[in-house]
Amino acid sequence: MPDQKGSSSVVFAFGTEGDKLTGTIANAHGETPISDGKVEGDRISFRTVDDLGGEEVIRLFEASVSGNEARFTCRAPNGADHQEFKAIRLAQPLLATRAPRDFAAVADPDAPVWRGSGVVSFDTDRSGAPVLGHRLEVRSLWTKRFLYFLFACPYEELNLRPNPSRATKTDGLWNWDVVELFISAGTDYLGHYKEFELSPQGEWLDMDITRPRGPIAKNLEWNSGLQVDAKVEAKERIWYAVMKIPIASFDPREGVAGQEYHLSLCRIQGPGPDLQRKRVVWYPADFHYPAQLLRLTD
Q: Which residue of 79, 86, 110, 135 is surrounded by the most CB atoms within 10 Å?
């Protein structure tokens, strides 16, 4: 969605009561409730009121909805600042399954603990186009103290960093083959979240991310207590990686069934200039925002 300084990602959360539309709009600065929401066939309309430095800013929204897309117009009450944009319906949540006990982070997809785990898989890039041969499968488990993620990554050609080290975090890991996970427990999840990365060689990176207007602020001094493992099965041309993330690193609450976190998943693969590398994303717009949901289940 465009704003006064270019473009930004926005998440609309809607509910309906007959022909009444309710909900919120979330961006990097927090959530704003909608008002005067209406549903008329395949069209919706509503308004928002924001306080920007003591100035009341009203915006009027209208949209036509078709399938998983909504095409919006947004304007001020006097017709000024007219904008048009498209919104895409988010995917179903990743349902993490409760593990019977905590366990070591070992990249073994055949381990019994992963049987029956929650799973999501996808093979599309940021435009929604398929990335053939590079489907990313992610399985998830949880306990009251940890989240576990198992990544399965088929590949054509590996792009690996020379002289890898698992001893300390690797800044700039995204320049090589990597899986990335973005997560937040807060209502400001588009403006403040945690980022985790893991390579086929077991190199890792954890960062505390803040997204004010302007460049992303990355806190590399932050230490999550992340535990990882990875292995490459060269004969099958697939690599596996496991993240064991302490819940306390991003949420003061212990994990309980029904709890939800905001999540995004991504894979960057292959050699070449950045724009030519393969990106497989769960969220087709800006994968760097944790706009999807992870739900803890029994």
A: 135
Name the residue ranges covered by the structural domains of the chain. Answer: 2-88, 94-297
The more confident residue out of 217 and 105 is 105
Q: In this predicted model, which residue has the larger pLDDT, 93 or 113?
A: 113
pLDDT mean across residues, the chain: 90
Residue 4 predicted with pLDDT over 70: no
Nearby residues of 119 by Cβ (< 8 Å), 6 or more positions away: 94, 137, 138, 139, 140
Q: Does the structure show a pLDDT above 70 at 54?
A: yes
* 144-156 mean pLDDT: 97
* CATH class of the 94-297 domain in this structure: mainly beta
Residues in CB range of 130: below 8 A, 6 or more apart: 123, 124
Contacts of 276 (CB under 8 A, 6+ apart): none
Asked if 166 and 186 touch (Cβ cutoff 8 Å), the reply is no
- Identify the pLDDT of residue 190: 73
C-alpha distance from residue 190 to each of 40, 48, 282 (Å): 30, 18, 16
Paired with 178 in beta bridges are: 268
Of the candidates 148, 88, 112, the one whose C-alpha atom is nearest the C-alpha of residue 292 is 88
Per-residue CA distances from 227 to 10, 59, 223 (Å): 32, 45, 11
Torsion angle, CA of 155/158/159/160, rounded to 10 degrees?
A: 120
